[in-house]
């Protein structure tokens, strides 16, 4: 293709891009979503045009013009990527805990759905040990005892499981899958979320009661106390985000159900993403700290208490300066 025809086909697009660059340099901010995506897509087409002009030996005037647009576009794209990183850090520092606090009725409901069955099962099984078999099989109960036997080389895992990194990957998949299951099942008018939150409370309560009866309470609580600050809190938060979806569908108010869901979904998604990040941190602690049998029990309890204090202070206090209306 001759240069004249090439320029005639693309000149309008170059001019439009140059005008958009001028507006951005003057302070205009591209809207997130379609506008930003279109800007990046046009930047890529412009970079291809520059490559074509060089490969076909077009005039230096055209190559300089396109190169200048590409350099300016690259700077804008890079700046927006930096903006994304800053936005992500700001979300973790202030936005996520603020959103959790704003959704406190759902978080409280999720906490009750989890905590009450857990406490009830612990009390029941401590007083009537045979009730554990209504929740798990005999083989599962025996496996549970083996995982928290004080003589085990690694706590909280099957004896044949080897490798901290392997277990780290397993914990990531398990924890995050539970988190998103609690969230997504809220689309079943909240019933799925309620079921999974209650089930997790019942199962953990049954396991706790059984290990108390077996006399393994020190190893069990020393194992759980560290990563539990992140994992159990994330479970409750994910359950709360699922209840947000369910409530929007059950009581949409003056809106239709779909409109109510669209209104609440962005906030609920951000909350569950924050919970998933907490699960990632929990998986790291569980694989490399909690499972070690070489660490003294009191050290684990002390560190675990520090983790719980950190998580509670983060969720209750972080971001209040940026959200003074709370």
Please characterize this protein's 3D structure.
Helix 6 (164-184) packs across helix 7 (191-214). The chain is built from ten helices and no strands. The termini are far apart. With 326 residues, the protein is mainly alpha-helical.
What structural keywords apply?
326 residues, mainly alpha, 2 domains, 10 helices
Mean pLDDT metric: 85
- The sequence of SSEs as H and E is HHHHHHHHHH
Proportion of helical residues: over 70%
Distinct helical segment count: 10
Most strands sheet = none
Uncertain parts: none
- Helix/strand-derived category reads mainly alpha
* Share of residues in strands: under 5%
Number of strands: 0
Distance between the termini: 62 Å
Q: Give the tally of structural domains.
A: 2
Query: What does the overall shape look like?
Result: elongated
Describe how the helices and strands are arranged.
Elements: H1 3-25, H2 34-55, H3 60-102, H4 104-127, H5 138-147, H6 164-184, H7 191-214, H8 217-250, H9 257-290, H10 297-317
Helix pairs in contact: 1-2, 1-3, 2-3, 3-9, 3-10, 4-7, 4-8, 6-7, 6-8, 6-9, 7-8, 8-9, 8-10
């Amino acid at each position: 293709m001759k240069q004249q025809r090439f320029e005639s086909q693309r000149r309008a697009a170059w001019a439009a891009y140059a005008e958009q660059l001028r507006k951005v340099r003057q302070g205009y901010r591209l809207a997130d979503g379609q506008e930003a995506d279109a800007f990046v897509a046009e930047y890529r087409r412009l970079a291809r045009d520059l490559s074509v002009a060089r490969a076909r030996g077009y005039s230096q005037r055209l190559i300089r013009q396109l190169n200048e647009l590409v350099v300016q576009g690259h700077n804008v794209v890079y700046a927006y990527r930096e903006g994304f990183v800053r936005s992500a850090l700001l979300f973790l520092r202030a936005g996520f805990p603020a959103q959790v606090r704003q959704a406190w009725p759902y978080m409280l409901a999720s906490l009750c759905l989890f905590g009450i069955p857990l406490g009830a099962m612990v009390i029941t099984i401590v007083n009537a040990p045979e009730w554990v078999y209504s929740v798990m099989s005999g083989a599962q109960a025996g496996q549970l005892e083996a995982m928290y036997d004080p003589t085990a080389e690694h706590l909280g895992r099957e004896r044949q499981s080897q490798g901290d990194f392997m277990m780290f990957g397993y914990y990531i998949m398990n924890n995050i899958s539970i988190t998103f299951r609690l969230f997504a099942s809220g689309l079943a008018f909240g019933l799925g979320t309620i079921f999974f939150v209650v089930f997790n409370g019942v199962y953990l309560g049954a396991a706790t009661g059984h290990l108390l009866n077996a006399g393994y309470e020190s190893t069990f609580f020393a194992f759980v106390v560290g990563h539990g600050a992140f994992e159990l809190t994330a479970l409750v938060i994910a359950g709360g985000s699922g209840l947000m979806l369910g409530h929007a569908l059950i009581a949409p108010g003056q809106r239709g159900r779909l409109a109510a869901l669209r209104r609440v979904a962005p906030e609920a998604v951000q909350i569950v993403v924050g919970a998933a990040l907490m699960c990632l941190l929990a998986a790291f602690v569980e694989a490399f700290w909690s499972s070690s049998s070489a660490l003294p029990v009191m050290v684990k309890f002390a560190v675990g208490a520090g983790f719980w204090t950190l998580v509670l202070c983060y969720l209750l206090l972080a971001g209040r300066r940026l959200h003074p209306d709370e």
